[in-house]
Amino acid sequence: MARTEYLAKIATRLRIHSLRMTTAAGSGHPTTCLSAADIAACLFFREMRWNTGNPHDPANDEFVLSKGHAAPLLWSVYAEAGILPFERLLDLRKITSELEGHPTPRMPWVRAATGSLGQGLSVGAGMALAQRLDKSPARTFVLLGDGECAEGQVWEAAAAASNWKLLNLVAVVDVNGLGQSDPTMHQHDLAALKRKFAAFGWDAITVDGHKIDKLLAAFREIGKKGRPTVVLAKTLKGKGVSFIEDRNGWHGKPLKADELARALEEIGCLPDIDAKRFVRKPKPFRMKRAAATLDFPRTAYTEKTATRLAYGNALLSLGKVNASVVAVDGDVKNSTYADKFFEVFPGRAFQSFIAEQNMIGVGMGLAAKGYIPFMATFAAFLTRAHDQVRMAAYSLSNIKICGSHVGVSIGEDGPSQMGLEDLAMFRPIPGCVVLYPIDAVSSEACVAAAAAHKGMCYIRTSRPATPLLYPAGEAFPVGGSKVLRKGEKDAVTVVAAGITVHEALKACDVLKKEGLGLRVVDAYSVAPLDGAGILREVAETGGRAVVVEDHYAAGGLGEAVAEALAGKAALTHLCIRELPRSGKPDELLERFGISAAHIVQAVRELAGR
Amino acid sequence: MARTEYLAKIATRLRIHSLRMTTAAGSGHPTTCLSAADIAACLFFREMRWNTGNPHDPANDEFVLSKGHAAPLLWSVYAEAGILPFERLLDLRKITSELEGHPTPRMPWVRAATGSLGQGLSVGAGMALAQRLDKSPARTFVLLGDGECAEGQVWEAAAAASNWKLLNLVAVVDVNGLGQSDPTMHQHDLAALKRKFAAFGWDAITVDGHKIDKLLAAFREIGKKGRPTVVLAKTLKGKGVSFIEDRNGWHGKPLKADELARALEEIGCLPDIDAKRFVRKPKPFRMKRAAATLDFPRTAYTEKTATRLAYGNALLSLGKVNASVVAVDGDVKNSTYADKFFEVFPGRAFQSFIAEQNMIGVGMGLAAKGYIPFMATFAAFLTRAHDQVRMAAYSLSNIKICGSHVGVSIGEDGPSQMGLEDLAMFRPIPGCVVLYPIDAVSSEACVAAAAAHKGMCYIRTSRPATPLLYPAGEAFPVGGSKVLRKGEKDAVTVVAAGITVHEALKACDVLKKEGLGLRVVDAYSVAPLDGAGILREVAETGGRAVVVEDHYAAGGLGEAVAEALAGKAALTHLCIRELPRSGKPDELLERFGISAAHIVQAVRELAGR
Q1: Which run of H or of E encompasses A264?
Q2: Bridge-partner residues for B419, per DSSP?
C-alpha cells in the first residue's frame, strides 16, 4: 500500500475515534482533533522513530502535545500504535480512566501535562537540550495550535531554541484559523506566522496540513537549514465533517448522538488497517549516563554569608558530584549566585535570558528526560512562571526552583523586586516542598534536601548576609523544624523562618533581660510544615505563639501555622500588611512590623506584660 | 541655541544627576541611565507634548518606563522639567522619598509601577487604546531595554498593538547590548530586533541612540507607515564614562565616591541650561467623558444559573449605564460570558487573544487613563498573569478581574483547567478585594461591588449552574458575609463560599434529621474576610467550625478563617489536598472530600456524634 494511502487511512481512523470518544464522554474538543489528524498520522506513523514498548527508551523521538485540548487525538494515536486497547478510548474523561480531558502523566507516555496553552515549545526545547546532552540521535516534536501562538511564552521558547541551535527540535503548528471564541489573529495567513518564526531564527515551512504527501515532503526538510524547524500546516477545524468544518462556534463541543451518526456516515466506515506495524523503530542508541551521588561536600563557612551565596556554592558542589545536575538562568545568575555553576559547567548551564516562563518550561523538559534542573531568579519574578509551576506539578516534574531576594529585607530596590507572595504561590502547589534557610549551613543543606527529594522543590533565599547559626553538617530534612532557643519557663514561642529568625533571636536576648523566656523555632520547612513539632513547642509555652515572616499576610508561614495550631493556641502574626517601599533593610523591617522590636512588643502583649 | 545642542546639554545633565543620585544612594543602576540619556532628552524635551503642571491632563503624551531600573533617569527628567526640586534627587531610595528604586505611583507622574521587566508595552498599549477611545491627539511612549525583549509579554503586546492598529503607540528600545549577567541575546545586532518587530507588524526604525539629530529624525517618522512605531536605538551602557562604558559587570552598581569624581571629570561640569523651557505644551484638547453611574439594573433570575453567566449579564448591564466600563478578553469570552459585553459594545471591548499577561497589562493602561476595565479568563490561566497582577497592585490600578471555572467542580476538563490556587494568588495582593459569589443574584451584586470599589478586585465564578439562594436586590458589600442557616442550638458553623455553600446546605438538611443544627455562613467576601462576623457565629456554635472550599489547602478560605479564629475555635478544613483529575463534577466533589457527605462527616466528628 502506498505510504500516502495508509497514512490517510490512519488519519481517518484517528478522526473516527476522536469523534466517538468525545460524544461518549459528552464533552471535549473533537474539531481540534480533526484539524490535526493528518499531521498526527504523518508524525507518529512515519516521521517519528519510537519504541512503542517503552516510553522511557532514550532512543525515542519525543512528542509534546502543546495544544492539550486535542487529547482525544493523542489517545487515539496510542490506541492505533497498540499501546492502549481500543475499547479503553471510550472511557475518555471518566474518573476511572487515565485518558483525561487534557494530557497528564497518568498516561505514562505523557512527559508533560498540557492544557494551559503556549507551554509545550519550552518543554520541547528542554527535551531537545537533554537529547543533545545525551548525544542521542533522537528528536523532539511539539504540536501547537495557531491560537496559542499568541502566548508570549511561545516566542520566548522560539528565541531560546534558535539561540541554542536546537536542530533536533521540530514544531508543527496546526493552523486551523479558529480559536475558542473568535477566529485567531492571523487566521489562515500562514505568511504572517512564517514571518514571525523566521524572524525568531527558525526555518519555517508552510504546507497544506491535509495533504499527506505535502506533509511528508515538509518533514523531509527538517533541520536542513541549520535551524530549528517549524512546519506551519494550514488546516480546517473539524476537517472531514461538512457541518462542523471550518465553522466558528464548534470549539470544545462534542457531537450529539445524531450528529455523530451523520458525521460517521460522511466519513465512511473505519478503514481496515493495522496502524501499529507502520510505527518506525528508533535507531539503536545506548545512553551513557554515569550513576552519581547527590551527596556533596559542604563548604566550611566562618563568617556572615547570604543564603543566596551559599545556594550558589552548594549548586556548584552538587554539580561536581552529579553530572545530571543542570541549571537554567533568567539573566540574574550573578544575583542568585547560580553563576558559580555556569562558570564551571557551561555545557550543562543554559541561559534563558529574561524569560522566566521559558526557564521553567525548559527545566520541565530537562527533568522529563532524567536531568535534575535547578532554576533560580528573584522570587518576585517567579510569579511570572506561576502557570508553568502549576503545570509542572501536574507533570510530576522533578524540578528545583530557587527564589532569591525575598521580602522587604532586600531594601532599596523597592516593591517590584521584593518576593512577598512566593510562599503563597508555592505552598498550594500539590507535592511541592518549600524550604527557607536562615544561614549558609542550612542553605547548603536545603539544596541537598531538594536534590534528594523526588519532586518539585522551592528554596527561598535572602539577599543580606546573615550570621551562621548552625554547625557545619547539620541536616535539614524535609518536614522538619529546629528549636533554636529553649528554656523551661518560656512564656511564648516565636515561629520564624529566614531573616526573621535572626530578629527573633535578638528579641529573645532583649526579653531575657526582662525575665521573659522566649522559645524560638526555625520553621525552615515551610511545606510540609512540622505542624506537630511546632504545636508541641507552643503547647509548652502556654499555647502562646508569635509567627513572624518577611512575606504578605495571606498564604505564608503565618497562615500555615494558624491552621496547624487551630483551636490550640493564641497567635499573633507579624508580617507585611501594606504596600512596601524603598529604604534600608533594617528600616523596612522596622517600618513594616517584623523587626526584633515588634517581636518584643508582640510577645509582651501575648504574655500579658 | 541649536536644538541638537540644547538637547545634548540636557542629556549631559541627566547623566550627571543619575550618577550622583546613585552614588549618594549607594545602590541603583547608573549605567542603564547613561545609555538612555540622549533618548530621554529627545523624548521629554522635544518629541513629547506634555503639561508639566498636571500629570492627569488628558492632552498629555504619556510615558511608561518599561525598563524601570532606569528610575534615576526618569527622576532626573522630572527635576529638569521643573516638577521636582533638584536637591530632592539626592534622596533617591530613601525611606522618606517618593523617588524609589524603581518607579511607583508614590511619584504622581508614574502611571504604572515598573521594575518587573517586559510589562510596559502592554500598559502603553492600554493607554494608547484609551487615548483613541477619548479621541485624543496624544500619544503614548514606552521606553524598553533590549534585555527585556526576551520576555514573551513584549511580543504579546507587540502583536496586539499591531492588530489594534495603535498608530499612537511608540516604543523606543534602548539597545545597549548588555543584560544583568550576560550580553543580551542579540547584543548590538539591531537587524535581528528589527526583523522581529517588523514580523509583528511594527514599523521598526534603527538609529544611533547617542546621535541627537538621528534620534529626532527617527521620531519624525512615527506613525507614517500606518503601523505602531518602534525606534531601535543602538546605545552603549554607561555611555559618557570611559571606564564603565560598554563593559559587562557594571549592571546595578553605583560608582564609588572616587569613581564618581573621575566620571564627573570626564563628563565635565553641569551644562548651564534651563531645560524646562524646552518642554512642549500639548495641543489643546478637552476630553468629553460623561459622568456616569455604577448602579445598574439587575437581571431577574428565576432558575438555576451559573455565576459566570450572571457575571456576563451584569457586565453588560453595567456597560449600558457607564461608558467608562471596558473589557479585555483572552479568547475565552464565550466561557466567561464576557461575550455579552463584546457583542453589544465592540468599540469598548478588546480581544487580546490567548495572552493573559498582555490582557492584564492592557487593563492597567486603560485604568491608568480613567477607564474601568474588566478582564476575564479561566481562573487557572490567571496564574499566567500573576506578575502583572502583582505590579498592578503597586500601580494602585483600578482593574477588575474575573476568574471562571474554579475548582474541581468544572469536572471533565481536568486539572489544567481547574482554578485551585487563585485565592492563594489574589489574597496576598495588597489592597485586592476577593469576591466569590454562590448564585446569580450574588454574582451580579459582586460585579456591582467590584465596580464601586476603588482598586483591584477579583471575582471568582463557577462553571456549573447553581440554584438561586438570595432574593433579587440583596446587597453584598465588600467585607461582609451572610448567615444562610441559623438555629438557636446549632452545634457547628460551616463556613463555605461558592459551590461548597450548596453542599453545606445539603449537609444541613441531612444533619437536621439527626437533630444536629448546622449554621451555614456564606463567606462571599474572601478578602477582606468578615473575620469578626464569622467569629461571632462560630462562638455561638460552641467554637466549632468547618471550612469547606473548592481550592487547595494553602492560601485559600480555610487558612483565612484559621487565622481569623486563631485560638478561639476548633477547626476542620475540607479542601483539595491531592492532585485532582478528570471526572464528573459531583464525583470529584465526593472523591476530593468537599461534598455534602464529607461535610456531614466532619460536623459529626467535631460535634462528637
Answers
A1: helix A257-267
A2: B406
Predicted pLDDT at A292: 84
Q: In this structure, are residues B124 and B140 in contact, taking their beta carbons and an 8 Å threshold? A: yes
Is B584 touching A (CB cutoff 8 A)? yes
Q: What is the pLDDT of residue B504?
A: 98
Tell whether B489 is within 8 A of chain A (Cβ): no
> Choosing from B80, B148, B151, B356, which is the catalytic residue?
B356
Measured between alpha carbons, how far is B74 from A419 in angstroms, rounded to an integer?
24
Name the average pLDDT for chain B.
97
**Which whole-number Å values give the CA distances from A7 to A47, A189, A238, A283, A393, in the listed order?**
11, 27, 18, 22, 36
Nearest Cβ partner for A113 among B355, B416, B571: B416
Pairwise CA distance, residues A71 & A115, whole Å:
9
- A151 and B152 within 8 Å at the Cβ level: the answer is yes
What are the φ and ψ backbone dihedral angles of B379, each rounded to 5 degrees? -55, -35
Which residues of B fall within a CB distance of 8 Å from A155?
A: 152, 155
Measure Cα distances from A507 to A355, A516, A594, A595, B131 in Å: 41, 10, 11, 9, 54
Place of cell 474576610: B529
C-alpha cell at B240: 559618557
The answer to whether residues A575 and A551 touch, using CB atoms and an 8 Å cutoff, is: yes
A73–B contact, CB cutoff 8 A: no
In A120-149, the residues whose Cβ lies within 8 Å of chain B are 147-148
pLDDT digits (tens, 9 = 90+) for B160-210: 999 999 999 999 999 999 999 999 999 999 999 999 999 999 999 999 999
Set of cell numbers at residue A514? 526582662
Q: Which of residues 93-112 of A touch B (CB under 8 A)?
A: 93-95, 97, 100-102, 104, 106
The reply to whether B198 touches chain A by the CB within 8 Å rule is yes
| ipTM score assigned to the predicted complex | 0.98
Distance CA B207, CA B197 (A): 15
Question: A543 vs B567: CB contact, 8 Å cut-off?
Answer: yes
Which residue of B lies nearest to A155 if distances are taken between CA atoms?
B152
Separation of alpha carbons B518 and B509, rounded Å:
9
